[in-house]
Amino acid sequence: MAGVALGNVSKQYAHHRGSVEILRNVSITVEDGEFVSLVGRSGCGKTTLLRIVGGFVRPDAGSVLVDATPVRGPGSDRGVLFQQPMLFPWLTVLENTLFGPRAEGSYAADTRERAVELLRVVGLAGFEYHYPKQLSGGMMHRAAFARAMMVNPKIMLMDEPFGALDALTRAGMQQFLLELWERRRFTVILVTHDVEEAVLLSDRVAVMASAPGELVETIEIPLPRPRTYDVSESTEFVDLKRRVRQAVERARGGGSVVGADHARASG
Amino acid sequence: MNCGPGASRAGSSVGDVRAVPSGEGRAQRDPAGRGQPRSALGEGLLALEWSRIGMGLLGVASIIVAWWFAALIISDNVILPSPVATGRTLLHYLTRPYPARGLTLLGDTAMSLARILAGFAWGAIAGTVLGAAMAAVRPLRLIIDPLIELGRPLPPLAFIPLLIVWFGIGELPKVMLIGLGVIPIMVVSVVAALDAVPEEYIEAARSLGASPGYALLHVRVRAALPAVITGLRLAMGISWTSIVAVEMIAATSGLGYVILEASNYLVTPLIFSGIVLIAAVALILDGLLRLLRRLVAPMG
Predict the structure, then answer these.
(1) Would you state the pLDDT for residue A17?
(2) N or C: which end of chain B has fewer CB within 10 A?
(3) What is the mean pLDDT of the segment spanning B206-223?
(4) How far does CA B20 lie from the centroid of its chain?
C-alpha cells in the first residue's frame, strides 16, 4: 500500500564556504492512511524532507520509498500543497481542477462531472467559473485541495498549507481538512511549526532538531476520531500539546518556540 | 450554498470560514455574484472600464483645449496652427498626395505601418527566441547578457549611417533598424518574465502528473505570457522612434518623411497632421497588444 519509508536520509547544500548539513540520517515510516506531522523550528530541514518525498530534491544518501518503490521524481501519486495555494491565475477554478487529468492524459467523459462534484465537496459550488484572484485565501486553499485530489493521490504532502491564513480562517481550514481526511483516508505528511495544529490533526507527531536536521522524537496522538475542533479544549489534548512543545524545546535546547522565531525574524 | 446532503459537513465548515469578515473576497461582498458569477462581474468591470475611458478622454480633451487657446493667442499658422486648421489639413491630404509627386497621408501611414510590422515581427521573434534560450541555458545567458547590456544603451539611431552603408536606402535597412531596437527589449523582458515564474507552479504541475515538457509549455511559458506582452508593448514604442528617425534621414515615403518635407516647406499644419497620425496608429497598435494581454491574463 501507499506508505512512505525513509531510511537514513541525509542532505547537504553547497554554501559559499563549504556546505551546510540540512538532514542527517533521518528515518521514518508513515503507514498507509496515516496522518503524520513534522514539527520543529524554522530551518530544521522539515521542508527539505517533504520535498525529498515529493521528488523535487534528491537526497545525498539514504532510501526514499513510496508504496515500496524508490522515488525518482515528482508524480501524481503524491499530491503537494504549498503555503501559498499556487493556483494557476490564468485558469478558472474549474479549469485549475481539470489541469491534472489533462496533464497526465487521464481526461475521460466523466472527468468534468467529477471536478464539479469535488468542488462542491470542498464548498466551492457556484465558484467554478471564478478566477483564483476572485476568491478569498481560504477558498483558494480549498480549490488547491480539489485540484490536488482530482488525480487521486495516495499521499498528500503539505508544507504549512495554512501558515499564511488568519487565525479564524486557519481554524476553518483545519476543520475542513479533518472532515476531508475522515472521508478519504489518504496518507498525509504535514509540515508545520504550529504545535496545536499538529496535535489536532495528526496520528503521530515527529519532532525534528535543527542544524543538522534530525528526527529526535515521535509522539503518538491517541485522541479519538473523528475529531472536531472541540477536542482542543480537552485536558488530554492540552497534555499532548505540552508534551510536543517540550519535545520541540528539548530538540533545540531551551527558550520558547515563539521566542526563537522572533529572534530569527529580527536577527 | 446549494450543497447536497453528502456535503453538508464540508458546507458547514464553509459557513465558518465565510463568517470571517476579512477572509472573504469580492465574491461575497456581491451577493448577485454567487448566482451568476460571470454576468455580475462583467457589469462591474464594464462600469469600471467606462469610467477609465471617460477619464482618459478628459485628459485628451483638456490638451486639445489648451492647444486651441495657445493657437488663438499666438495666431500664427506657421508657428502653431489651431486644432481646426490641423484637422482641415489632415483631412485634405489624407487622400491627396503631398508634395505633388509623393503619397497621400493614408499611403504614407500604410508605408510606415508596413515597415514597423515587418521590423517589429522579426525583432520580436528573434528577441523572444534568444531570451527563452538564455532563460533555459545558463552558459548562454552568461555569454549573451554582457552583449545585450553593451548594446542596450546605444540608441538604434546611431546605427542608421552604418545600415545605409551596408544595405543602401531601400526597405531592408529600415526593417533591420526596427528589429535591432526591438531585440534587446524583448530579450530582457522574456528572460525576466520566465525567471519570475515561481518554481512552485512547476512543482505543482509536476505533482499533478505533468511531464517536464508539459509543465514547461503549459505552466512556465503560459505564466510568463502577460509579462512578455508587456515587453512587446515597450518594444512597439521603440519601433516608432526608430522608423520616424530613419524615414527622416533616408526615405521618400512614410510619416517621418512627410513631417520632414512639411517642415522644409513650413507647412506646420501638416507636421501636426503627421504627429497626430503617428499617435493614432501607435495608440491602435498598443490597444491591440493590451487587448491581447487581457485575453491572456483575464484578471490582470
Answers:
(1) 76
(2) C
(3) 95
(4) 41
The DSSP call for residue B157 is: G
ipTM of the complex: 0.86
Which strands, in side-by-side order, build the sheet including A187-192? A78-81, A155-159, A187-192, A35-39, A204-209, A214-220
- The residue type of A170 is R
User: Cell numbers 498507509 correspond to what residue?
Assistant: A32
This prediction has a pTM of: 0.80
Could you tell me which of A171, B211, B12, A67 has the C-alpha nearest to residue B1? B12
With 70 as the cut, is the pLDDT of residue A228 above it? yes
In percent, the amount of chain A with pLDDT more than 70 equals 94
Query: For all residues of chain B together, what is the average pLDDT?
Result: 84
Q: How far apart are CA A237 and CA A248, in angstroms?
A: 16
State the amino acid at position A106 in one-letter form: S
Q: What is the C-alpha to C-alpha distance for residues B65 and A165, in angstroms, rounded to an integer? A: 52
Q: Domain ranges in chain A?
A: 4-74+184-266
CATH value of A4-74+184-266 in 3.30.70.260, 1.20.910.10, 3.40.50.300, 3.40.50.2300: 3.40.50.300
Interval A162-173: pLDDT, tens? 888 888 888 888
Say if residue A160's pLDDT is above 80. Answer: yes
How far is the C-alpha of A95 from the C-alpha of A211, rounded, in Å?
Answer: 42
- Provide the grid cell at B96: 491627396
For residue A53, the chain B residues in CB contact (below 8 A) are none
What is the distance between the alpha carbons of residues B178 and B118, in angstroms, rounded to a whole number? 9
CB of A116 within 8 Å of a chain B CB? The answer is no
pLDDT at B63 over 80: yes
Please tell me the distance from the alpha carbon of residue B271 to that of residue B255, in angstroms, as a whole number: 9
Are the Cβ atoms of A133 and B300 closer than 8 angstroms?
yes
Whole-angstrom distance, CA of residue A166 vs CA of residue B249: 63
Amino acid (one-letter) located at B149? E
Task: Please identify which residue in the block is written with the cell numbers 504550529.
Answer: A194
- Superfamily covering domain B82-296: MetI-like (1.10.3720.10)
Helix (H) or strand (E) holding B253: none
User: Is it the case that residue A104 has pLDDT exceeding 60?
Assistant: yes
Contact A180, A142 (CB under 8 A): no
A127·B298 Cβ contact <8 A = no
Nearest to B13 among A147, A153, A179 (CB): A179
Question: What single string gives the DSSP state of each residue in chain A?
Answer: ---EEEEEEEEEEE-SSSEEEEEEEEEEEE-TT-EEEEE-STTSSHHHHHHHHHTSS--SEEEEEETTEE--S--TTEEEE-SS----TTS-HHHHHHHHHHHHT---TTHHHHHHHHHHHTT-TT-TT--GGGS-HHHHHHHHHHHHHTT--SEEEEESTTTTS-HHHHHHHHHHHHHHHHHH--EEEEEES-HHHHHHH-SEEEEEETTTBEEEEEEE----SS--GGGGGSHHHHHHHHHHHHHHHHHHTSS-HHHHHHHHHH-
How far is the CA of A250 from the CAs of A28, A186, A197, A208, A245, in angstroms?
20, 31, 19, 10, 9
Chain A's closest residue to B201, CA to CA, is: A86
